[in-house]
Amino acid sequence: MIEYPSIESLIGQTPLVRLQRLNPNPSNTILLKLEGQNPAGSVKDRPALNMIVQAELRGDIKPGDSLIEATSGNTGIALAMAAAIKGYKMHLIMPDNMSQERKSAMSAYGAVLHLVSKEEGMERARDLAQEMQEQGKGIVLNQFANPDNPSAHYVSTGPEIWQQTQGTVTHFISSMGTTGTIMGVSHYLKEQNSDIQIVGLQPQDGASIPGIRRWPKEYLPSIFEETRVDRIMDVSQDVAETTMRRLAREEGIFCGVSSGGSVGTALALSEELNNAVIVAIICDRGDRYLSTGLFDH
Asked: What PANTHER family does UniProt report for this protein, alphabetically (predicted)?
């Protein structure tokens, strides 16, 4: 009997491709991990499924339960997909300034959206998730404190990068939101070679880049371990958006703003280094940002 794959089996094993034209130093290799190739379109597919599967295995949840999560977009889309696969009701809380494509994608998967104002932001979204749980409206998965978030990257993203580069990676760059990606990948890669440099990105003061944050201390994700990041760099709005557009127009790589920030930082690092193999995470696809007009410049 033929064993056909299910949709969840398509999560992970994303391609790693070489930057061809933008790299300022030909002695370096810049590689991009195309996480937009996941079924729901982002790197968050990995932890979304893992958080639900692991909670099921512990007996914390069962199909038919209601789940709750605060999200700025990609995690919400991924959780809406994972909940649909596994048979859960999904309540998602997000700031109302997120792109219409993100909201529509969540609704398409059957999730119920709860919006807070742009001014209240993710801090209020996270607080409201906890309030809803206390009111008995569902169970919060809490990507910001859930070890099943970084563990998804420890068991999949990190090993894939190591294997795809045949162990030659010297620098890993990731934008930081929940910090799950950078924590899990750092944990794995440092076990293979402690000299690999882990670079985390946060937005420059005043920048508003979807998916990455400069968290107030009281809201810093508890899964974040400072010792796992060798260098934290700020990325400006202009660099993130300009690089995003250049990736589409000069490399044929259609991605979002935080991915533009990651690659912009990779380009800056490439000017400092020689004979390096730099891997940057392309978090998602550009089609979920079209209504923002960012590609019209």
From this structure: CYSTATHIONINE BETA-SYNTHASE
